[in-house]
């Protein structure tokens, strides 16, 4: 028996069953007609799918053919005029219902053109059973500074897969940054592609509210254009940033948001400035207590705060879960610049231990009873600040290394888009925060109060100097 079969010149290995497609001879006219039908069907599908472009073109062409170019010019001019008037008369609605939907159509085409390549190179396509399945674009929406592309994931993918590939996607689509947010259904993810940069310019100081809302202090502008409002009730705040990253501006933004409360007597700011008063000194009248040179004095202040926290906690136990600040019992906020000077670089062992113990008490017991800490530090490492975990709210400004981002904002936050190490030196006050109920970090820029603004604020809302120093 031969080991191979030779069928019509082809050598085919012997198999239990050899099957070949039968050859059917078709007349040429049938083939041509079939191809024409297919081509027409394709054309119609394209026409219907892109109705937003094809329909107007058809109508305009019909107009031209039937009535001539004058009528065409009249209609085009009329539409342009209406659009212009609308754009000037009510810009928000024009953008929302007129311009952005048009832009979204155009951008959808741009994204679709590079989609396949982008998915494959970002390893977001899935090869399975000799087929390649890629995630699908469901919807494209345009907003002021970003595009939101809703994507149906391939079964088995999770939004984090897209978050991890975000940098690659950003370069592929030529945008500044891409964020991946879980979509409205479990099968979708929304890619937010940031086009421009809303945070390029310095943010001027915000108006001072008469009575601060302690659950929402406006201190910065978010990259989507909204105000970032920080919760102070129930939390402690840590600001981390390399030198020159604008930690001072975060402190002053917070102080400014609280200044109305200082004047009304329901907020007491205690300032600790181990750099000798360099940062907080100009706003001295705003602080009820202030220490800037003597470390023993700073230890005293923190111990006083710890004692206050313990007293209040003992008194309020079982009665309420959130202390309400009053004139008799104001909200106490310890504002500490360069915290590392107190926790790590201090050479006097005894003093350091006292500070650590008292700070631990304030951080753990003060949250619910209105004794808060707002502290700034350059280095987030455990050796420098062992109590890092006791600050539930953390603001990450420019950092020197990628590894520091997760230390500050939490595990996986750099992958989800918190690129603190990439913030340019030319944009101080810019940083990332984690919003309540949102798994992805938000880029913000804090307001900048220059020295004169701080002085004016101190004159207006502070007590004349003379109290406990
Ligand atoms: N929010 C901001 N917007 C614009 N410019 C800012 C902002 N914050 C700070 N700057 C500018 O950056 C400079 C450095 O800021 P700042 O002193 O607050 O940094 P820092 O993080 O406290 O640095 P250091 O660790 O050296 O104290 C400021 O002098 C100011 O000119
Ligand atoms: Mg500083």
Automatic annotation (TrEMBL):
Keyword Protease applies: no
Q: Which UniProt keywords apply?
A: ATP-binding, Membrane, Nucleotide-binding, Transmembrane, Transmembrane helix
* Entry annotated with the keyword Plastid: no
Q: Record's SMART domains? A: AAA
Q: Where is the FtsK domain?
A: 216-406
Q: Which domain of life is it from?
A: Bacteria
Tell me which residues bind ATP.
241-248
InterPro entries found in the cross-reference section: AAA+_ATPase (IPR003593), FtsK/SpoIIIE/SftA (IPR050206), FtsK_dom (IPR002543), P-loop_NTPase (IPR027417)
Residue spans crossing the bilayer: 51-67, 73-89
Molecular function terms in GO for this entry?
ATP binding; DNA binding
Among PANTHER family, the record links this protein to: DNA TRANSLOCASE FTSK, SPORULATION PROTEIN RELATED
**UniProt name for this protein:** S-DNA-T family DNA segregation ATPase FtsK/SpoIIIE
